């Protein structure tokens, strides 16, 4: 186990919660000046931290514990009927791993996705500076799954490789292809990637009880939830 005792943590001031109405949130983040490598990042992920750009954070709200870290144990995962249909529906899509998404093609897809799917979110309006800061990493752990349909870029999954799994950081895709359920297909693809790499988990970030837009995460079973600092299996 990596020694994390040297890391300093900082807390934000209370601010409006992004997930639940009429709630205040407090976030703890790792000292931005700390030296982070894949081992430290992996250990922090097991403790419920997530990455946003070069920052590692987790919720730390005194009056609410609705944000619960979750991860899929890939060998125990059994897709439901809807997920199986999604997988079959998208077998005409090609998936390739690339090392960079700093291109006009990638950014324009991200821009369309934010403008049409997340106008009410923190990332609207999109900008290239925001895109580069949020979706890239400085620790040599990030890679990107490209989804293409007849050579056309239709989706990108930003994915970090940890010591014990893949961390699904963010996915953006062509908004007009809603019937393909590309968000679901992206997670299923990352589960397959983890299996091929003999990695036991796919980390999905936070499931937020009571937040409709986060309910999809609990549909992947079996799943593990971090409760009282212990990973608990939910079938």
From TrEMBL:
Role according to the record: Functions in the N-end rule pathway of protein degradation where it conjugates Leu from its aminoacyl-tRNA to the N-termini of proteins containing an N-terminal aspartate or glutamate.
Catalytic activity, reaction form: N-terminal L-glutamyl-[protein] + L-leucyl-tRNA(Leu) = N-terminal L-leucyl-L-glutamyl-[protein] + tRNA(Leu) + H(+); N-terminal L-aspartyl-[protein] + L-leucyl-tRNA(Leu) = N-terminal L-leucyl-L-aspartyl-[protein] + tRNA(Leu) + H(+)
Protein name as it appears in the record: Aspartate/glutamate leucyltransferase
Gene: bpt
Enzyme class name: transferase
Membrane spanning stretches: none
Source organism: Cellvibrio polysaccharolyticus
Any one of the GO BP annotations: ubiquitin-dependent protein catabolic process via the N-end rule pathway
EC number, UniProt record: 2.3.2.29
GO molecular function: arginyl-tRNA--protein transferase activity; leucyl-tRNA--protein transferase activity
InterPro entries to which the protein is assigned, alphabetical: Acyl_CoA_acyltransferase, Asp_Glu_LeuTrfase, N-end_Aminoacyl_Trfase, N-end_Aminoacyl_Trfase_C, N-end_Aminoacyl_Trfase_N
Lineage top rank: taxon: Bacteria
Family: Belongs to the R-transferase family. Bpt subfamily.
Keywords noted in UniProt: Acyltransferase, Cytoplasm, Transferase
One term under GO cellular component: cytoplasm
First-listed, main subcellular location of the protein, grouped into a coarse class: cytoplasm
N-end aminoacyl transferase N-terminal domain mapped to chain residues: 15-85
Compartments it resides in: Cytoplasm
């Amino acid at each position: 186990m990596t020694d994390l005792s040297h890391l300093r943590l900082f807390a934000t001031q209370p601010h409006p919660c992004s997930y639940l109405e009429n709630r205040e949130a407090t976030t703890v983040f790792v000292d931005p000046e700390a030296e982070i490598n894949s081992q430290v990042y992996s250990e922090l992920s097991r403790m419920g931290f997530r990455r946003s750009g070069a920052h590692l954070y987790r919720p730390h709200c005194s009056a609410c514990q609705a944000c619960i870290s979750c991860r899929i144990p890939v060998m125990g995962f059994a897709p439901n009927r809807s997920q199986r249909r999604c997988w079959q529906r998208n077998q005409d899509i090609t998936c390739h791993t690339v090392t960079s998404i700093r291109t006009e093609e990638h950014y324009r897809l991200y821009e369309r996705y934010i403008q049409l799917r997340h106008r009410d979110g923190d990332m609207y309006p999109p900008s290239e500076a925001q895109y580069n800061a949020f979706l890239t990493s400085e620790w040599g752990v990030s890679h990107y799954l490209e989804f293409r349909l007849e050579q056309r870029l239709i989706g990108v999954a930003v994915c970090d490789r940890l010591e014990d799994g893949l961390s699904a950081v963010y996915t953006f895709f062509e908004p007009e292809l809603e019937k393909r359920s590309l968000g679901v297909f992206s997670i299923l693809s990352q589960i397959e990637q983890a299996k091929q790499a003999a990695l036991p988990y796919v980390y999905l970030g936070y499931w937020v009880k009571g937040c409709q837009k986060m309910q999809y995460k609990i549909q992947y079973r079996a799943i593990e939830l971090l409760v009282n600092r212990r990973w608990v299996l939910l079938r």
